[in-house]
């Protein structure tokens, strides 16, 4: 089981590296959970293709409410010169110094990464419905991603939500709707579920959602999360 977990983590790292080499693709970074699994911190960073500048963003989310904790968003774009081959990792390390008091106050442990139960590989075709099983607990999950886009150019916007059915090993089914079905996000063309993580203690789930945005240099890929507590 440990060898399998390490293999999954290595695949996730390779995906991030491959994505950062194409388009204007951010690198998603799991920064960990609080011990009770109720707070999750993550980041994205990269090199903005249009400006050539490194950027980083750090988000801290209250899992049960699916909302940012107070003052839970940090963003910076750096004017420092970057060399070919850099990924913007330096931007993330620099921004993490600013986020450290919030990390500490929420007791975020970088080693508490949750448990990856779904991963969309680059070669896989995204599907609106996915089903996966947690082989540790025996629970199974059926996920439906509903989305709609409208407009074009500067008026482009898209909305989505996730319908989740969780069936426990004992056969009990529970249904959840995650996200804001009526919120059109400006500049977004498409959404994909990239990862699903179980929180420490298996009491909740985090969906890592990729947002595809058209940009002056092609396509920009950014990340957000949707969370819930069972």
Number of helices: 2
Total DSSP E strands: 14
Counting structural domains, the number is 1
State the secondary-structure class: alpha+beta
Q: For the largest sheet, list the strands in their spatial order.
A: 1-14-13-12-6
Average pLDDT figure: 91
Report the biggest beta sheet as strand number plus sense, adding barrel if it closes: 5 strands, mixed
Helix content: 10-25%
Query: Whole-Å distance between the termini?
Result: 25 Å
Rg from Cα: 18 Å
List the topology elements:
Elements: H1 2-20, E1 24-25, E2 27-33, E3 39-47, E4 54-62, E5 67-78, H2 89-105, E6 115-119, E7 129-133, E8 140-150, E9 157-167, E10 173-178, E11 185-186, E12 190-198, E13 204-215, E14 218-229
Parallel strand pairs: 1-14
Antiparallel strand pairs: 2-3, 3-4, 4-5, 6-12, 7-8, 8-9, 9-10, 9-11, 12-13, 13-14
